[in-house]
Design a protein that fits this description.
Shape: flat
Number of helices: 18
Strand content: 5-15%
Radius of gyration: 28 Å
Distance between the termini: 22 Å
Structural class: alpha/beta
Largest sheet: 8 strands, mixed
Helix content: 40-55%
């Protein structure tokens, strides 16, 4: 990997086609999804909608065979967008903190302000009281999804926590000899008003959380990998755990029915491990649980080599293993131990931060670049006939097809709809204006619209055309781990681009290096990393342009 950033613009292996009226399904947000259970075979039942999944590319079709009837039926059912319990608890804490501050300030304005004005000791006490109260609520354990949906339980605990917060404030005022500095009537009003507001908020929240829980939006949609007796024991252990949030869709196992029955602990075997990859592309799978023992090293490694390209958590069952590690080596679902193998790259708060970063900054950038985009559009219109904007199908998150917007840079009658021929230096298909906007990456500016719509990120692995090739071979045929770059949403610019891996991919090494950079970015993502890549994008454009045609 290059140590010095060189260029941040997108590689140009793809070619363009006419503007099309139809638009594909947008790449889904990097959120977990789930579906409510209807019977023991989770998700089973008549298909309720036609699958939106595009046909696999030639490189995929051989590796991931089609699904069976039952697996297709489950995969085609609609699923509810799930809610992260971690994020929900965090937002509930923030809401409590703000409500306490608002009630404190409101009572101060009503009772204290007409007589004493707005002395600073009151806001200081309000903020301190809000912080102490939230800490007390946390100690009382009223922020779990289960507690948030049981109003009577959290009602009592919240009242105790609120009383405790005022007791702490009273002790602090006593030791600092500031008891006479505060109005006792104001304290009484704040206590009563705050308690009423908090209880009213929790009543509304409990009703909504209970509704979400009935829809299964706090459950994780899971698949068991590996069948037989180990899978049956694992399922029984999970079902015996009251606090388990798992919704099992089915089982995938390479072995035939003589070694792995078609029904295990009431759940169907839906196909092989290769078919599991296709299943996870067509429906939301949150968690893959490998039920094989650690001693079956060869089989475990073979499965993981196929499954790690998916944007899901992968866990290895450890509840029946005789080899025991330190307790900290395990994670738990309910009281069932697991060994963490892979985690979803961006989840919970990271997902929310990434979403806000893309939507807010993307909208601001779109507004800022509107004059530049207008100038480019006029230049294209004057230079050659045809539409200014065209849409091209590319791989998005989890291999879904998205329609990416670009400025047209080629003559309308010389486009290659399948992107089977790379754009090369002095390519006669590229217009004079197109040559300039491709070198400067101005042709990518319309993709800010894709960012605002949620189809792309500002920073991420660049989306490639479905038929993009390196040395006359499809990218996934050149790089074994190619599809692992689709575990996150693609971006307008990325780590590979600012390190100079852009332009034509005429050798296997070029796409190999690009994928290595993409995987490095996925494993090391942070908001600061995104900001650094964005800041280096214009610098890299100035430093190196000779490999973008």
């Amino acid at each position: 990997m290059a140590s010095m950033p060189q260029s941040a613009a997108e590689a140009k292996p793809d070619t363009e086609h006419r503007d099309e009226a139809a638009s594909d399904k947008a790449a889904a947000d990097n959120a977990v999804t789930d579906t409510p259970p209807s019977d023991r075979v989770s998700g089973a039942g008549p298909a309720s909608k036609e699958s939106d999944t595009p046909p696999p590319s030639p490189g995929q079709e051989q590796d991931h065979p089609g699904l069976g009837a039952l697996a297709s039926q489950i995969a085609d059912q609609p699923v509810q967008t799930a809610i992260s319990g971690v994020v929900l608890a965090g937002l509930a804490r923030l809401a409590d903190f703000l409500l306490i501050i608002l009630t404190g300030v409101a009572t101060q304005l009503v009772y204290v302000y007409p007589v004493e004005g707005f002395p600073i000791i009151y806001p200081a006490a309000i903020v301190l009281g809000a912080a102490v109260a939230v800490i007390g609520f946390q100690v009382m354990e009223i922020y779990s999804p289960y507690a948030l949906r049981t109003f009577l339980r959290q009602n009592t605990r919240l009242t105790v926590g609120w009383l405790g917060a005022f007791a702490v404030l009273a002790l602090i005022a006593f030791f600092l000899k500031m008891g006479d500095a505060y109005s006792r009537v104001w304290l009484s009003l704040w206590f009563a008003t705050g308690l009423v507001v908090l209880l009213a908020f929790r009543l509304v929240l409990a009703f909504q959380v209970r509704r979400w829980a009935k829809l299964g939006r706090f459950e994780r949609r899971a698949v068991i990998v590996g069948g037989g007796e180990p899978a049956a024991e694992l399922i029984e252990a999970l079902e015996a755990s009251d606090s388990s949030d798992i919704r099992i869709c089915g089982i995938f196992d390479d072995r035939d029915d003589s070694r792995s029955p078609s029904i295990v602990a009431g759940y169907p075997k839906l196909g092989t491990v290769d078919q599991l990859v296709e299943f996870a592309r067509r429906t939301r799978v949150d968690l893959l649980i490998v039920s094989l023992p650690i001693s079956a090293e060869a089989r475990v490694l073979s499965m993981l080599n196929k499954l790690w390209v998916l944007p899901v958590d992968i866990r290895l069952s450890a509840h029946t293993n005789k080899l025991r590690f330190r307790p900290r080596s395990y994670s738990y679902i309910g009281n069932v131990p697991f060994i963490d193998i892979f985690d979803k790259p961006i989840a919970d708060w990271d997902f929310l931060l990434k979403w806000l970063f893309d939507r807010v900054l993307g909208a601001l950038m779109l507004i800022a670049f509107l004059p530049v985009m207008a100038a480019v559009a006029i230049a294209i219109r004057l230079d050659s006939r045809g539409p200014v904007i065209f849409k091209q199908k590319r791989y998005g998150f989890n291999n879904e097809l998205i329609e990416v917007w670009k400025f047209r840079s080629m003559y309308i009658d010389k486009t290659d709809h399948t992107a089977s021929k790379l754009v090369t230096k002095d390519d006669p298909r590229v217009t004079s204006v197109g040559r300039f906007i491709r070198k400067t990456s101005l042709d990518e500016l319309p993709q800010l619209v894709n960012v605002v719509r949620g189809q792309l990120s500002l920073v991420g692995p660049r989306p490639h055309a479905v038929q993009a090739k390196a040395a006359d071979k499809l990218y996934d045929a050149v790089v074994d781990s190619y599809f692992a770059r689709h575990r996150v949403k693609p971006g307008i610019t990325g780590w590979a681009q600012i390190n100079g891996w852009r332009g034509e991919t005429d050798t296997p090494e070029k796409i190999q290096r690009r994928v290595e950079c993409d995987l490095f970015y996925i494993e090391n993502w942070s908001v600061l990393f995104d900001l650094y890549i964005l800041a280096m994008t214009p610098v890299s454009l100035i430093r190196k342009k000779d490999n973008a045609y």
